[in-house]
Amino acid sequence: MRAIVIHEQGGPEVLKLEEVPQPAAGPGQVLIRNEAIGVSYSEIPMRAGVYPPPVSLPAVFGFEAAGIVTEAGDGSGASLEGKRVVVLSTSFGSYAEYMAVPADSVTVVPGGVTAADAVAVANMAAVALCLLRRARLTGSETVLIEAAAGGVGGYLTQLAREHGAARIIATAGSPAKREHARSLGAGAVVDHTDPGWPDKLGEVLGGAGLDVVFESLGGESAGRLLGAMTPVSGRMLLYGVLNGPPAIAPVDLLHRGLTLTGCAGMGDWLALVQAARGDVLRMVADGRLRPQVDSVLPLSDAARAHERTEARAAMGKVVLVP
Ligand SMILES: NC(=O)c1ccc[n+]([C@@H]2O[C@H](COP(=O)([O-])OP(=O)(O)OC[C@H]3O[C@@H](n4cnc5c(N)ncnc54)[C@H](OP(=O)(O)O)[C@@H]3O)[C@@H](O)[C@H]2O)c1
């Protein structure tokens, strides 16, 4: 089969199209004929060498895919054969025509939902839904959503109002992205690439407080946002650190009675996100959630897909098709 193999970490050019043996479904596994493969920002440091790869190299790259189950291994439950499923693997192997994964790691895609849409929502929208559930918005609160034209940020923006946000303020790094964030439901959008953006936010708030901050940028700005948050009831849900660890000391929360909640990791949080995967797929099937597919490229263009993602040009999921 054709697959994108990585022999060593480095620039996008290390993603090479090669012929490799087709995997088979082992015990407890299913074999998926991939129809759509998801490219994620979190894969970039894994390719570039910032993080170690999950398996020794060379290996087939990638974690996310949706496709049809063509083979069920012993003990995997034959009921999945012929079904369209989506998977976020904990190991490499998705940038290929076929991948074998544990049967209990896949989620069945409802009828009428395309593979590209499934892979676009399966992780990012599930994370957004879990964040909104954890935020327990009251119906009258003001929220801040960072990087709102991105994957998780975009779904947060789409879903915040029905989860109880009265006012949605977003951030995005370009005019096109700010326009996109508005189209997804943001009432006001601030440019987070402007170093003074937390002050600009103050102008937008006009003396009101931020009740909930969905924090994915981290870094210096995270600490500066605390001053704009509503004392006592203000809560920050930290789910990413794109600009480094947030500059927040416990004492900064203490004096204003604020709450900081970490929303990441492999334990309970991952279980919640996996459970939410079926919910967001049903929402797509019912027309209650709009999948954000940035672009669809052939598998052979994996390097170009990484360049687009790395350049922060994508608005939603970059999808590869074998
Ligand atoms: N906790 C979890 O379970 C979980 C799961 C998935 C993802 N995440 C986190 O969610 C966040 C968004 O992930 P995503 O998959 O939605 O990504 P994405 O669609 O690629 O969006 C990321 C966007 O963030 C903005 N950004 C700001 N500073 C950045 C920086 N230093 N480097 C890169 N991008 C930067 C960029 O938009 P602009 O052009 O507007 O600046 C970029 O397009 C990340 O922090 C990720 O780690 C968390």
CATH class of the largest domain: Alpha Beta
Question: How many DSSP-defined strands?
Answer: 16
- Examine the coordinates and then state which fold CATH places here, giving the name of the CATH topology of the largest domain: Rossmann fold
Binned strand content: 25-35%
Structural class: alpha/beta
Low-pLDDT windows of residues: none
How would a textbook summarize the main sheet?
7 strands, mixed
**Could you give the distance between the termini?**
10 Å
Give the overall average pLDDT.
96
Q: CATH superfamily of the largest domain, please?
A: NAD(P)-binding Rossmann-like Domain
Kindly give the count of domains.
2
Question: What level of helicity do the residues show?
Answer: 25-40%
Chemical compounds bound to the protein: NADP nicotinamide-adenine-dinucleotide phosphate
Radius of gyration from CA coordinates: 20 Å
Order of helices and strands: EEEHEEEEEHHEHEHEHEHEHEHEHE
Coarse shape: globular
Number of helices: 10
CATH architecture classification of the largest domain: 3-Layer(aba) Sandwich
Task: Write up what this structure looks like.
- 28% of the residues lie in helices and 26% in strands.
- The protein contains 10 helices and 16 strands.
- The N and C termini lie close together (10 Å).
- The protein has helices at residues 44-48, 115-121, 124-135, 151-159, 175-184, 197-205, 219-225, 250-254, 268-285, 302-310, and strands at residues 2-6, 15-19, 29-39, 59-60, 64-72, 84-88, 98-102, 106-108, 141-145, 165-172, 188-191, 212-215, 235-238, 259-262, 293-298, 317-321.
- The protein has 2 domains: 2-108 and 292-321, Medium-chain alcohol dehydrogenases, catalytic domain (Quinone Oxidoreductase, Chain A, domain 1), CATH 3.90.180.10; 124-262, Rossmann fold.
- Helix 5 (175-184) links the parallel strand 10 (165-172) and strand 11.
- Helix 3 (124-135) crosses helix 4 (151-159) and helix 3 packs across helix 9.
- The mean pLDDT is 96.
- The protein is globular, with a radius of gyration of 20 Å.
- Strands 3, 5, 6, 7, 8, 15 and 16 form a 7-stranded mixed beta sheet that branches.
- With 322 residues, it is of the alpha/beta class.
- It binds NADP nicotinamide-adenine-dinucleotide phosphate (NAP).
- The site of NADP nicotinamide-adenine-dinucleotide phosphate has 27 residues, from helix 3 and helix 4.
